[in-house]
Amino acid sequence: MRPLCRLIDIPDGGAKGFPAPPGGFIGLFVVRKGEQVCVYLNACPHLGVPLDWAPDRFLSADASRIVCGTHGAEFAIEDGLCIAGPCLGDRLEAVKIELRNGVVFVPDDAGL
Ligand code: FES
After folding, report:
1. % of the chain residues with pLDDT over 70
2. By CB distance 3.0 to 4.6 Å, which of 16, 17, 53, 63 could disulfide with 29?
3. What is the per-residue pLDDT across 26-71, written as a single tens digit (0 to 9) for each?
């Protein structure tokens, strides 16, 4: 596992993107609700492109859904299930995390 960020680096109720590690080409993004953290590959299941239309813009205006900036697909924050849009029923690829002492760890190869 490798450290990705500190919990306090993510605004509560917000999201933040992280570029791919050296040698990788798919970044990750983190969504935080209190002490709960979800990490996904930053790749839309529709076309594989990054979801954020601007840096760290992953969520709907009310921060209740993850939104793809390309064609507007909407995903549940908790499990990445697409609930509206062209990839309805598909899922974002979740990344297993460990939270230790306020630091979010992800597998070494996550985002490669
Ligand atoms: S690329 Fe994400 S909805 Fe089309």
Report:
1. 100
2. 17
3. 999 999 998 899 999 999 999 999 999 899 999 999 999 999 999 9
Q: In what order do the strands lie in the sheet with 15-18?
A: 15-18, 28-33, 36-41
Distance CA 43, CA 40 (A): 8
C-alpha span between 92 and 40 (Å, rounded): 6
Which atom of ligand 1 is nearest to 48's Cα?
Answer: 1
Pocket test for ligand 1, best of 42, 52, 66, 87 (most atoms within 8 A of CB): 87
Contact predicate 107/1, CB 8 Å: yes
CA angle 16, 97, 66 (to 5 degrees): 40
pLDDT band at 14 (very low <50, low <70, confident <90, very high): very high
Distance 41 CA to ligand 1 centre (A): 14
**Listed residue (23, 56, 37) closest to 97, CA to CA:** 37
